[in-house]
Automatic annotation (TrEMBL), chain A:
UniProt keyword annotation of Phosphoprotein present: no
Keyword Membrane carried by entry: no
Keywords carried by this UniProt record: Thiamine pyrophosphate
UniProt family annotation: Belongs to the transketolase family.
Cofactor(s) essential for the protein: thiamine diphosphate
Stored CDD domains: TPP_TK (cd02012)
One Pfam family per UniProt: Transketolase_N
Residue span, Transketolase N-terminal domain: 15-275
Superkingdom per UniProt: Bacteria
Coiled coil: none
The protein's name in its UniProt record: Transketolase
Lineage: Bacteria, Bacillati, Actinomycetota, Actinomycetes, Pseudonocardiales
GO terms of molecular function: magnesium ion binding
């Protein structure tokens, strides 16, 4: 039986989800729900899409992945471990004093972390500059900016969206985690952002909206974006509808919370559910 | 007789005509003063000839920050980001991240008030070589608080790693531009644009980033000044000489890091010490010097000449400079009053 791209991504996402739970347990809480939700998406970027050198994260020819949503660092650390940029053994230091893996992602701390996100609505503006700069330098490197649906509240995101379309930054791709939740509650109640596709299309972007937990759909969307990626062209956005806590039914069904608290005895239960779910899926 | 009456009437009419705000950026050059046109734009265009990393960005204010000179000379290296200051500085950070040396221009009010978070976190924290160019610093427009960056230095001084430069004239600007590009981290230039006075070539002076210079010595008073107020300080020193008051002028175009060594060597005396700045009295040169004086344990009294802690009026620049104490005549009066 041949191993497909989708199989490899599935396997990576599964391992990443275990890493995420392990890191979450170190803190006893955290952005575990969001991280589980985007594990499939980051498994695609970090095991299937990005040109990089694991042993040389500063390699000038690399594609850029910008984590605008700094608190999703826990998910990116898992992806960087999967990509070989971080040793898996280091993940247990997550959020600890002196660790290279702080709770909110910062470029000066972590190999493979391109920018210090966290003040939301910044990443796409920096990505526009990188895309302009790399094109000016004559390269064909791609730039991916990861942001959350909550960041669509920020005016700067739309300044950048217009700027990218105006300058025809065809090698720029925005990845939006549409998990429908932000700090004060459901996105729809905090500041409505729908219809999101129409907004991006109106801003001049090639827009796709997919189930962000369906690996086949994600791969198809990334392939479509890659096919169109040109130094001068339409920037591309993939809106990914994700489910918070994906892969762990206990967390999928828990009342949605931006900062999820998980009791001490529940971590093993979460891991067991994740393992069983994965084995069940493989058996089908 | 008829002719004389007519002349008097005409003069009277002229003298009652009020000064007007005129353009957004009224030149503060005195009538007949030597000036250079768009020194920043020309200096940047010249620098780009020898440094291929240099790029220019603006947020719909190219013409008003002299960036258009660079844009015309190097169109492929000029990037128009639109009226979007957060994007302007975020994008400048991204360009610096890939090894370019951006100069990004807008008005000081928009850089300091509107885009602070982007300057702070995307540029200063990673210590990127982005050069922020802010037009209309302090009171250099009569358009009122929306455009008068009276507190830009106060806002920026708290930002770690940011170098702050307040040039006096075209000489300062021409010499500063390559040094700003050569400096490793981020810089903020309080831009003077258009017809900019040329003053410092009459002194034994060269701009050195991070350094203050004693432009002239004097036994009675020490002026510590930056920006266009150094020009006024020199003019006031000349006028005070006619009152037998001997004034030393220390020009400190770099506000941060502050050259305390050079400045305190002058300040540590029994002369009257006066700071002169085109900025609110809160958080600018006066407080920079005051903290240096206190830290050194000097008991020197320092008299500030600065803008008041207020939102300022609209109007003609000469009127406003006189109203708020930046005019040469008001400086002279203030010093004579202090000396009793």
């Amino acid at each position: 039986m041949t191993t497909t791209r989708a199989d490899r991504v599935h396997a990576a996402a599964y391992r990443m989800r275990h890493h995420i739970l392990d890191m979450g347990e170190v803190q006893g809480q955290g952005y575990v729900g969001q991280a589980l939700g985007v594990a499939d998406l980051l498994a695609v970027t970090h095991t299937d899409q990005l040109r990089h050198r694991a042993e040389d994260p500063e390699w000038a020819g690399r594609d850029r992945f910008l984590l605008s949503t700094g608190h999703y660092a826990i998910a990116l650390y898992a992806a960087l471990a999967e990509a070989g940029t971080l040793p898996v053994s280091e993940l247990e230091t997550y959020g600890s004093d002196g660790s290279r893996l702080p709770m909110s992602g910062m470029a000066s701390y972590t190999p493979g972390m391109e920018i210090s996100g966290g003040s939301l609505g910044h990443g796409l503006t920096v990505a526009v500059g990188m895309a302009l700069g790399l094109r000016f330098q004559g390269t064909r490197q791609r730039i991916f900016n990861f942001l959350s649906d909550g960041e669509l509240d920020e005016g700067s995101t739309w300044e950048a969206a217009m700027g990218a379309a105006h300058h025809q930054l065809g090698l720029l791709t925005a990845l939006v985690d549409m998990n429908a939740l932000q700090a004060d509650g459901p996105t729809a109640g905090v500041l409505g952002i729908e219809p999101a596709e129409q907004k991006w299309e109106a801003a001049g972007w090639f827009t796709q909206r997919v189930d962000g937990n369906d690996v086949d759909s994600l791969l198809a969307a990334f392939d479509a974006a890659a096919e169109r990626a040109q130094p001068v062209g339409q920037p591309s956005v993939i809106l990914c509808d994700t489910r918070i806590g994906r892969g762990v039914p206990l967390l999928e069904t828990r009342e949605k919370a931006h900062f999820m608290r998980i009791d001490e005895h529940e971590w093993q239960l979460c891991r067991d559910q994740l393992t069983h779910g994965h084995e069940g899926a493989r058996a089908q | 007789m008829t002719s004389s009456t007519s002349s008097t009437s005409s003069t009277s009419k002229t003298s009652t005509k009020r000064l007007t705000t005129s353009a957004m950026i009224a030149s503060f050059a005195d009538p007949g003063q030597r000036t250079a046109s768009a020194p920043f734009g020309h200096a940047l265009a010249a620098l780009a000839e020898s440094d291929e990393r240099v790029v220019g960005l603006t947020a719909d204010l190219g013409k008003y920050t002299d960036m258009h000179v660079f844009a015309q000379a190097h169109p492929e290296r000029f990037f128009q980001l639109g009226m979007a200051e957060q994007l302007l500085f975020g994008a400048a950070a991204g360009m610096a991240e890939v090894g370019l040396v951006p100069f990004a221009s807008t008005y000081s009010v928009f850089a300091a008030r509107r885009a602070y978070d982007f300057l702070c976190l995307d540029i200063a924290e990673p210590n990127l070589n982005v050069n922020i160019v802010g037009g209309l610093p302090g009171l250099t427009t009569g358009y009122g608080p929306s455009h008068q960056a009276t507190e830009d230095v106060a806002i920026f001084r708290g930002m770690p790693k940011l170098t702050i430069v307040d040039p006096c004239d075209s000489v300062d600007i021409e010499q500063a531009v390559p040094q700003l590009a050569a400096a490793e981290g981020p810089t903020y230039l309080r831009l003077l644009r258009g017809k900019v006075p040329t003053v410092l070539d009459e002194y034994d002076y060269t701009f050195r980033l991070g350094k203050a210079s004693v432009l002239r010595g004097g036994n009675d008073v020490v002026f510590v000044s930056s920006g266009l107020m150094t020009m006024r300080a020199l003019q006031a020193a000349d006028e005070l000489a006619q009152h037998n008051v001997d004034v030393s002028v220390v020009h400190t175009p770099t506000i941060k890091p502050f050259d305390a060594e050079t400045v305190l060597a002058e300040v540590d005396s029994d002369r009257l010490v006066v700071t002169l700045e085109n900025h609110t009295v809160v958080g600018g040169l006066f407080e920079t010097l005051a903290s240096a004086v206190v830290s050194r344990g000097l008991g020197t009294r320092v008299v500030p000449i600065a803008l008041p802690d207020e939102f300022l009026d609209a109007g003609a620049l000469p009127t406003l400079h006189e109203r708020y104490g930046l005019a040469t005549s008001t400086i002279v009066d203030k010093v004579l009053g202090e000396l009793g």
